[in-house]
Every structure is written in C-alpha cells, then in structure tokens.
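Final report, closing paragraph on structural work. Over the funding period we assembled a curated collection of sequence-structure pairs, and we close with a single example.
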Amino acid sequence: MAEIAAVLAHWQLDMRHVRERMYRAPTPRERERWHALWLLAQGWLASKVAELLERDAHTIGAWLAALDRDGPAALAFEQTGGALDAGTQAGLKVAAQATPSAVGVALANWNWKAVRQFVEARCGIRLGRSACTRYLHRLGFVYKRPKKRLLKADEAKRAAFVAEYAALLAEARASGAKIFFVDEAHFRADGDLRGKWVLKGEPALADSTCPRWGEKASYYSAVCLETGEVAHMELAGTSFSATSAAFLRQLRANHPGPLVVIWDNGPAHGGEAVRDYLATPDLALRALRLPAYSPDCNPDEAI
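Its predicted structure, as stored:
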C-alpha cells in the first residue's frame, strides 16, 4: 500500500482522482487498469486484485510500474491493428487450412502468433492476441485436439479392409459368429501426467518413482463391438507367438460358436505357435490382419 501511495503522490493523484478515472475511462481496458490501482490503494494485495480481475499478478505489477514511470497516460489503452479487408480474411482462411510453413510462417501449427505473422507480412497490420483468435473463430475455425494423420498407411488397403469388414459383419450376423478385435495393452508404473485438479495458485504434482522402462503390467485384451463383450489375459513378460496362441485358446474356451479375431501385424500375432493352433481341426476360429499402420481401425486400442 505504501508503494501505490507514493506513486499516486508523485503524480499528484488521490483516491478521488483514481475513482473518477476508473468510471470515466473511455475503454473497458483502461477502466480495468484504474480499477486495479484503486483496489491496490484500498490495501488489496496484487495477488488478490489479479484473482478478482482474472489477470496475472505480474500484469497488475506492470500497470503500477507503468504509472510510476510515465504517469496516467501510460494506462491509456491504444487499439493495435485494425479491421482486415475481405481479401486478407479470405487469404487467411485458405492459408490456415495448410501448415504455417507453406505460407512462409516459421511455426509448426496455427495459433494466434502464426495469424499475427501472416497478417503483418501481408498488410502491415499487427493484431493482438484476442483479435487473432477472433478472426480464426469468425472464419469458421475451432480449437480441437488433433488426431494422428497416418502418413505410412496405405489408403487403398484401408478402404479394402473397410469393405471386407462390412462383408464379414454381414456374414457373422447370418452365422452367429462373434468378431473380436484384439491388441496388447501396457501400463507403465508411473504417475498419470495428463492433468489433475488443484487449487488455483497451487502446483500440480504427481508422485513418481522414476521406474525403469520394463516396470509395467501387460495384458492381452479383446472387444466385440456387436455384443459389448470384453476379454483379457495378463502377460507375465513380453508377448510372442506362444502367448498369442494362449489368448486365442482362452477366447475359444469362453465363447462357443464361430469366432473371428482381428489384430494388427505385430510379430507376436504370427509365428509357429499361432499357425499350429489355427490349424487345429474344427477350430471355427479365423484370424485376420488389420492394414499396416492403422491403429485407428482397431477399437481395442481404446480399451
């Protein structure tokens, strides 16, 4: 409080002046800045002011430092940039559907900084962060978590698999067969670092023992989309032909009637043990392979 009092006194301001500027400021941004200073002068901590205004405490401190250095004029809000014409907006819409590097922007993905660079290079207008985001929304873009584009996958083989699966599904419905998608799952002995809820201002920490790469639990799992049935088998070590054959035996024992197993091209899904088991007379179990580099075709990936 002593610091804000000294700054106000230096520029011959008192609480009446601050309050008056807070209410008469011409823009919402400028009103917000004078509001923050008024709260500081009332004895509020910068952290509490930041929490109320949903700002960073460093931003509040920067406003106070600007007032101390340059006076009330430093708190005036100057609009940067300007409206983009229709041609620039159309160019941005086309550009943002490719990679930034394709239009000379040295960033990996489109974000507000990429938009700023693109616009500034073409028409000399420097947009702020919120303006860049607004233009993306206005042009029909939304922020999504991306899915992998499988560059090594063969599109013709993927399309052939979809057609084959449709025929297989019709055949299974007619014969009463069950189709199981199969894969292995590995659970590492470490904390889940994807996210957690914590009190605002508190660090998000997850305990970790820094386990070795081999410290994991491994399972075979299978899911039948038509019935919702799932199956699993724990692995004592790594998967190989014999363990895959053992899981097929478990499926066969627990599910009477014809079975179709669909899995990827991993080496554990072939080999002598699997071939010998599939050659068993009257087994009524078929094993089919997914197209290469196509994990998205296997629903068991989500198990």
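The chain has eleven helices and five strands. The mean pLDDT is 89. We thank the funder for supporting this effort.
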